[in-house]
Amino acid sequence: MVPRWPSPTKALRELSRGARMVKVGGAGAGWRFLREEVLGNGWLRLTEGGGGDPESARVVCNLCGWAGSRFASHVAPGYLDKNAFCPRCKAYARHRGCAWLLAERLGDELDAVATRGGRRLLFAPEAGLRNLLESRVGALEGVDIDGGRAGVDIVADAQDLPLADGSVELVVSFHVLEHVPDDARALAEIARVLTPTGRLLLCAPMTFEREATQEFGEARADLNDHWREYGTDLRERLLAAGLDGPSYRFSHELPADEFRRLALVDEELFWVGRRA
What we know:
With 276 residues, this protein is of the alpha/beta class. 32% of the residues lie in helices and 25% in strands. InterPro entries: Methyltransf_11, SAM-dependent_MTases_sf.
């Protein structure tokens, strides 16, 4: 069944009441929202582009230090994500949550990675995330199926990595696994290339309201080409690939005031390696 999305008027009303993300439909809705949000984001950059006082600002980016009344909104076909990315460094909520966890929970682990040999891979490389991680663990190699993407060093499919067994010390995968047709195959490939001490740093969109992952059977154009929406059984999928280790849920790890100041959405960061 095709979901019935709210009208643009209703969606704007929901946003004014504080909704983080709404789906929109109706004739011309995408263009209307694009116009509104481009203007809104443009006004934000014009009036607050230089940043404000972190002590009094409503939101703060912990990657670049920008502070202001809100983050910029992300517009995509069918939905609007409010308060999403930093207007200065383009860091999204997942990057801000990751930065906090790397500093507060995984510092010793990252220091250990930095001292070991082995390759370090970043799937679907994003500049902000790359800079954050390279400052802790050294140079990363960008991996993507699209060789035209910026920052790509290895053109490869995550389901078939052209790398030797046990040759990789770190794999970083942020919001990639949901785009892979066969995620079990991709996870098995990651497990294959990891060294015995290697780690996978993984974050994927998921709901905590449902255990079972919802498989769509295709890349859904209306959901940014996602093949699935993960439930809490994502850990079971990792275990099935022979990967195990701790995970950190943003809402459980961060103090409530810090969660709000970073404008996070609730996600879970997995730090897993090959089971002995």
